[in-house]
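Sequence in, structure out. Go.
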Amino acid sequence: MTRFKLLDSCCGDADNTLARRRQFLKLSAMFTAAGALPLLQAGRAAHAAEPDAPVRIGYLPITDATPLLVAHHNGLFEKQGLKVEQPRRFRSWSQIVEAFLSGQVNVVHLLMPMTIWSRYGSKSPAKVVAWNHTEGSCLTVLPDVNTLEDLGGTTVAIPFWYSVHNIVLQAILRQAGLEFINEGEPTKKQVKLVVMSPGDMLPALGSKRISGYIVAEPFNAKAEELGVGKVWRFTGDVWRNHACCVVTMHERDLQERPEWSQKVVNGIVQAQAWVRGHREDTVKILARNNPAAYTPHEASTLARVLLPSAERDAAYAKSGAIRHADWNELRIDFRPYPYPSYTEKLVSLLKDTYVLGENAFLKNLDPAHVARDLVDDRYVRKAIEAQGGLSAFGVEGGYTRTETFEVS
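Output:
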């Protein structure tokens, strides 16, 4: 029987332990009706006072945010006739959620499972309008981990309980016959799961306070570069062409500013189409030496993620990080349409995944209803068709698909 209790941290540093616990509890509180209310009221007041509010992007410095940043850098919002502010960079999910709920930012990328928690756990009025990317995450482990069983008795970090990362990791651990806990010392048949901000994971792995982490790029690529970790499995090799972060906007904007909302989504979709054909330029835009300073990452690290490499893919296939070479997955890709089948599959998987905190709302969620209610695909469909249709994003078969989730 898998056992869970509230976890403080995996690390020995007391200050870091308390900081991470405060961050998690703060975010948990925000996603309750009582905790979200003051922020939602502030957000509504801000909207009432600023009917012509500009595009205000909030993001974490991970490659998942690429379309938002490229759209800003390339002036795609301005070309739509929109006013836009300099994107605001946040370190943690709690910071970005607080800024979004209070109206400080109005276009963000969030973990897709987090949007389910937000809308149905706290009744916050937010909608998913598009995918920001597909794939883009890995399970990275210490170099001396040779089998999944080697993770037994150790600690592995996830970015948040409500994440595709947590879903995929738990599926991988279950198949290996490992339990997961979040308190106490794990036995050789158990793995302790802890929540960490993406930026904290690499130092923790480098100091061997954890044995692995599953997170968005480029933190996996950086571990490879530094020689402190190796990619064990790509999440896109488990869940084919899955989304991770999605574009989230205030429902009130979608209802009261439809023309503005369409133009915002147009810019994001245009950015995704552009990135697919300009990956080297995208590396330069995101790199730390760009005057815009969108991210703190080196160009060499970003290139490992954004630029395809047949040589590296062959090595990953040999190591087992890629088991479904016939899927022809890229390390990260950009396909904006939010397939209903994906949302339905996600809800079903969440029901069988342990997520810490109040999660009773999951039990009664109907996957088909969530796909219709959480996601508003009106704007992204129009934006995609303006780009020439789904084929512009390497997609054939129209606006429906069948989900493929295979651990082995």
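Check: The first helix runs from residue 14 to 30. The radius of gyration is 20 Å.
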